[in-house]
Amino acid sequence: MLNKLIASVIICTGLVACSSHGENPGIEYAPDMYYSKGYEPYSQMRHMAYNENGMTMRKPVIGSIARGQLDYIYKFPDTPEGYEASASNLNAVEATEENLMEGERLYNIYCWSCHGKEGKNDGPVITEGKFAKPPFANYQDPYIQNLPDGKIYHVITYGKNMMGSHAHMLTPTQRWQVIHHVKKLSKNAAPVVSSDSTAVAAQDSTTN
Ligand code: HEC
After folding, report:
1. pLDDT tens digits, 87-101
2. Which residue's C-alpha comes closest to atom 42 of ligand 1?
3. What CA–CA distances, in Å, run from 89 to 34, 83, 103, 174?
4. Exposed, middle or buried by CB within 10 Å (0-12, 13-18, 19+), for 115?
5. Which of 8, 112, 162, 165 fits a 20 to 30 Å CA distance from 51?
6. Banded model confidence at residue 12, pLDDT cuts 50, 70, 90
7. Is the beta carbon of 154 within 6 A of some atom in ligand 1?
8. How far apart are CA 156 and CA 179, in angstroms?
9. What span, in angstroms and rounded, lies between the C-alpha atoms of 15 and 40?
10. Residue 85 C-alpha from the chain's centroid
11. From CA 68, how far away is CA 136, in angstroms rounded?
12. Rounded CA gap, 4 and 10, in Å?
């Protein structure tokens, strides 16, 4: 009887002591397997008093330029003149099937939320009224159809008015791939406003 009592007390204590709650991680078997020994970038290590906020890695100094992007910033600075000059910057990536597909994939991650999947400026950010509409109606607007690839690259790199820079999301190659997709959308016919399914199907076959 006494043995059973002692055993159940030990089990209960064990269950309570090992369980994790709040800030108590409980008893951990081999904590090395949960926590990296190496420092995680940008994580907080309070004892690193010499680094601001105890950060393990500091943010790059303001004005730091990523490798391989120095040329662009000098040639086409973030100024109205730089924007105009960027028209001469030709698409550095071939419009192969592969690049177009990758451009579409990236567009559907980074751009559709405002410009819409078909480039109609009907993405949720715009339709929910959180953002002012772009000044052009949609990508099928002659303004976008005639907009040089270089200028689009400039806008993706630096942003323009309400559109922020996407330079930290897309590598230079990826920007050119997305531009191929923007140009592809710009050549699509205007949307078919009809309940006639054959009309929609016909349009679909041209857009795919
Ligand atoms: C947060 C919403 C938003 C996102 C996300 C966004 N855009 Fe825009 N975009 C805008 C707005 C607003 C404008 C109009 C800027 C202006 O005032 O001329 C614009 C303008 C443009 C233009 C016209 C540029 C010019 O020179 O006039 C192009 C092309 C474009 N966007 C492509 C893209 C591509 C490609 C992406 C994804 C990499 C993207 N946008 C992501 C909101 C957005």
Report:
1. 999 999 999 999 999
2. 163
3. 49, 10, 18, 15
4. buried
5. 165
6. low
7. no
8. 9
9. 32
10. 27
11. 32
12. 10
